[in-house]
User: Fold this.
Amino acid sequence: MNNKKIIVLLLYWVTLNSFASLYDSCTSNTQRKNTFYVSSDINKNKPDGSITKPWKSINSAIGRVKDDSLIIVKPGIYKEKIKIKRHFEKGITVRSQIPYQAKITQNQRVLAFLQKASNIEVEGFEITHIDEFSSPLIIHMDAGGKNRVRNITLRNNIIHDSYNNDLVKINYGVEDIQIICNIFYNQGDSDEHIDVNSAKNITIKNNVFFNDFQKSDRTYTKKSSSFIAVKDSDGDLDRFLGAEKIFINGNIFLNWQGSHGAGFVLIGEDGKPFFEAHDIHIFNNLFLGNSDYSMRSPLGIKGAKDVYFYNNTISGNLPSNAYAIRVNREGDNLAPKNIVLHNNIWADNTGTMGQGKYEKSNDFSDSLYTHIDSFTLDGNLYWNGGNDIPSSIFDKLNYGDDPHSIINDPKLNPPKNIITPTWDAKESKFADGSYDIEQVFNKLIANFAVPQQPVKSISKFKAASDDIYNKIRPKKANIGAFQ
Assistant:
């Protein structure tokens, strides 16, 4: 048996043995006391929410059900604008009967959690705008500053094609949100997939983020912003000063199609005179450089403190001003402080590390001395296809500042010829051949996150307790997203 076949079999074994951990993330185990039904089919019977007399509207069902209820939505297209303002003590679950076969769409805000909305799960839907004339936002969570919108879970949904503003906006006092095992693609110009604005305790985990505007018959305008932005636009006008306790964990980012001034993840954005974000944890993510379009840097930090970036894998060619990170001040920002990067893999097999057709030179970071207060770099792996790792005397943060740096080839599969997993409702499958989000996730991890030459951590900082598959790491853990 040749080496290539051995590697394929190993990756297959890894996928099978990791499936259970990811399945637990993508599947809800919530049990509810009551069950009600919604159907888009014409029903001449007087509806009561039963399986034989289902309600026609999801919005109506949410307004009528008792606490501790499961709402099962049958396949169909639901042209609704859903507003949820109710507090549920025990909670409700709104679930597509067959994953992705119930589509919620509208030419304005599709799904809103407002006022007292709390303890609500939304699972298994396709959620999107109708067309380019749609008004802002697809999903909006807004506590209005003083209200308590909390404990909302979005799980196993396909959220795509906002023609105006963000795919998901979480702002002004919202807390305790879980966004788990969803697929996001194609936001509006100048906006994000997820915009976290003055919110607390937000978990964004095991999702897949990408853009492919052409597949949605949209023009690539080069104007869309980061996939995830974390910030605070309104200062002390709500219950939180600065977004805090944000966990961006075990996600996959690929196929950049956005503004050259943006990147995959941005912490801080609005030039405020306080730290716009703090206690931010970004770990176990896979960042893939499979696009020829350039970005500023995959990670940007401005006006933030206590940002921890660890056990991530950044692989492939990422045409950019800085291959790893940009740290800067904007407007009235305070200088970012306590930026900690450890146990990460930065590996560009092409040997260009950031350089592309729009960049004449390449940098590891953009971090002017007056734009960063304090940082720590420790125990990371750097690989530039055998070429030197870029360094600049004009930047405060360079790979040479890492006392336990590892210069080595992790032998990751180059992220080439990736079929973006857009959803085909007619075929009931994703463009890569997958039938659910778990399969999409597993394929990308098995193909691009598993190093053929893994490296053990030598950092003074502990590795993440688990990995991108949610599997527990041993004491002598590998660096990067995959254990």
Notes: DSSP finds three helices and 36 strands in the chain.
